[in-house]
Amino acid sequence: MSDTDFKITTKDEFLSLLGKAYWLETQFENIMQWQAYMTIKNDSYRNALFQISHDSEKHRTILTQLIKNFKDVTVNTIEDYASLKEKDMDFKGKWDEEIITELLKNEHLVLDIYTKLHTYTDKNSYKRYGKEVPLTSFLNTLSS
User: Fold this and answer.
1) How much is the pLDDT for 140?
2) Which of 20, 29, 53, 110 has the fewest other C-beta atoms within 10 Å?
3) What gap in Å lies between CA 29 and CA 6, rounded to an integer?
4) Does the residue 109 lie in any domain?
5) What is the pTM of this model?
6) Which pLDDT score is estimated for 97?
7) For position 69, what pLDDT does the model report?
8) Quick one: three-class SS letters along 13-30?
C-alpha cells in the first residue's frame, strides 16, 4: 500500500482503529504477556517478558493521553469503538520459544497498526477531531 491508496478521514474510522490498537495493547497483550510470564520457565525469557510488559504499560499511558485529546471520548468509550471482546490465551504444551515468538508477532502487529494510523490518517481531517494531537510525536514516543 502506498499513502495515496486511501486516507482515514472520519473521526469514527480513526477512533475505531485506535480503539483496536488500544484493545490489543491493554487487553490482548496484557493477558497474553502475563499468562506467558506464568508459563515460561526460562529466567531470561521471563526478564524479557517483564520488560515487554513494562513497555506495554508505557504505551497504555501514552494512548490514554492521546485519547483524552478527543472530544467526548474516554478510555471506556474507545473500547466501544473497537468492538472487540476478551480473548483467553492457552500456552499449555508450548515451548518457551514458541510463546516468545507469538508475543513478538503481536508486538509487531500493534506497531504496524500505529504506523498505518500515522501514515493513512488525513492530517487535515485529524485536526478537526479534537484538540491538536501530534500524531508524529505520538508514534515517535511509542517506538522509543
Assistant:
1) 62
2) 53
3) 28
4) yes
5) 0.76
6) 94
7) 77
8) HHHHHHHHHHHHHHHHHH
The Cα diameter of the chain in Å comes to 50
Q: Please, which residues have CB within 8 angstroms of residue 90's CB and are 6 or more apart in sequence?
A: none
Calpha distance 35→92 (Å, rounded): 10
Least Cα distance to 113 among 11, 10, 16 occurs for 16
Residue linked to cell 525469557: 45
Q: Which backbone phi and psi does 123 adopt, to 5 degrees?
A: -65, -35
Residues of the chain with pLDDT under 70: 1-4, 84-88, 125-144
CATH number at residue 133: 1.20.1260
- Residue appearing with cell numbers 501514515: 119
In a domain, 32, yes or no: yes
Domain that holds residue 67: 11-143
Q: How many domains does the chain have?
A: 1
